Amino acid sequence: MHVNQGEFIAIVGPSGSGKSTLLNMIGALDRPTKGSIKIRGTEVSTLDDNKLAEARRHVGFVFQFFNLVPRLTARANVELPLVIAGVPKEVRERQAEEMLSKVGLDGRMDHKPSQLSGGERQRVAVARALVTEPSFLLLDEPTGNLDTRTAAEIMDLVTRLNHEMGVTVIIVTHNLEVGASARRQVRIVDGLIVEDEVR
Length: 199
Fold this sequence. Notes:
By secondary structure, the chain is α/β, with parallel strands linked by helices. The chain has helices spanning 19-26, 49-56, 74-84, 89-102, 118-130, 148-165, 176-179, and strands at 8-12, 38-39, 42-43, 59-63, 136-140, 168-173, 184-189, 192-198. It contains seven helices and eight strands, in the order βαββαβαααβαβαββ.
């Protein structure tokens, strides 16, 4: 499977088919036991831990369970990757606010996760994943905890950001409606790609 910069791909298939495993390998979270994963021509599976950490800087992750820090505001949650990267306070605050504005949370920046709806929490998670301007946005069942209307809103948001920012989006889902948001669908069954279709 080859992924071009700026593509929007859905990896679909039943539970246990290997979708999340593939996503974790693409994001350099797991190493393949065989085969190879190349990002910009670099073989990821042979990198040492320091180089792997460097490779992960090009990747933004969004998960099903949001993974927000409960005691931090939306702004502070989005700032976290920038804190880790050593970005100065004024710069990271501005970047976090700009990204939260981009995902439609202008008036909710000072709210903690418990004060936000599920859709708003996922928007914060998307903003946090994109604030470092990664090359790839990887989403693992990002609508699994959301109702149908909110799930559609999140997918519309991701589609818009894919167009506006040119970020490559790879989403893993067992939900065919969510998968239909993507222009390209890769279907996996029992760890094998059985279909790779551009619509």
